[in-house]
Amino acid sequence: MYCYHHPDRDAVGACVACNEAVCPECKVEYEGRVYCNSCVQRMVSGDSITASQPATVLITGNTSGMGSKASVPRELGEWNWGGFLLTWVWGIGNNVWWSFLVFIPYLGFMVMPWVLAFKGNQWAWQSRRWDSVEHFKRVQHTWTVWGLGITIAVTILLTIMLLLGLGLIVWGLQQSGTQPFW
Ligand SMILES: [Zn+2]
Ligand SMILES: [Zn+2]
């Protein structure tokens, strides 16, 4: 039997709520019973898990997309370059709406990239469904590559514009017969 979400992977059990087969990545254990990720997501959003229960202790497995109560796998890493470099753009792609605090004048611009770098992995994991930790890492790696690429491109562009501007000033001063001031 193969996983309902991953036809190429062997199933290790079936969800007690919807009966679909689950692989280790899709399997979520809640109160000792096996569920699939989407059924637990529905239970969490429907609040049948009461606030008095420490959900982070009870739910194990692929807990992505289950909100702030869900535990976050350790192996996600500590630093999120995509959030640091692309802030709100990354936030849209990862359902992390906190990233829009970057638009708070001055403070947002200085503080939010650091917050997103440190909390980005946790928030992104909790706010949307990921197939697995590997899937999460793969997507975040793409964000890193884009973030670095865009940052480098913008830096080069600004440098060229600055040099062109300086060149024009020097040229202009020479035309008017004045020596540049340096
Ligand atoms: Zn299910
Ligand atoms: Zn699966």
What do you see in this structure?
It is a single chain. The chain has two domains: 13-71; 76-175, no CATH class. The strands form two sheets. A three-stranded antiparallel sheet has the order 4-3-5. A two-stranded antiparallel ribbon has the order 1-2. The protein contains five helices and five strands. It has 182 residues and is mainly α. The structure holds zinc ion (2 copies). Residues 3, 5-6, 9, 22-23, 25-26 line the site of one zinc ion (ZN).
Please outline the helices and strands:
Blueprint: E1 13-14, E2 21-22, E3 27-30, E4 33-36, H1 37-45, H2 55-58, E5 60-61, H3 81-93, H4 107-127, H5 133-175
Antiparallel strand pairs: 1-2, 3-4, 3-5
The structure holds zinc ion (ZN) (2 copies).
The site of one zinc ion has 8 residues, from loops.
Indicate the low-confidence ranges by residue numbers. Answer: none
Name the shape in a single word: elongated
Largest sheet: 3 strands, antiparallel
Q: What spatial order of strands do you see in the largest sheet?
A: 4-3-5
Number of domains: 2
Q: Strand portion, in percent? A: 5-15%
Order of helices and strands: EEEEHHEHHH
User: Mean of the pLDDT scores?
Assistant: 88
Gyration radius, to the nearest Å?
A: 24 Å
- Oligomer classification: single chain
**DSSP summary: helix tally:** 5
Structural class: mainly alpha
Bound compounds, each kind once, are: zinc ion
Helix content percent band:
40-55%
User: Based on DSSP secondary structure assignment, what is the total number of beta strands?
Assistant: 5
Give the CA-CA distance, first to last residue.
Answer: 77 Å
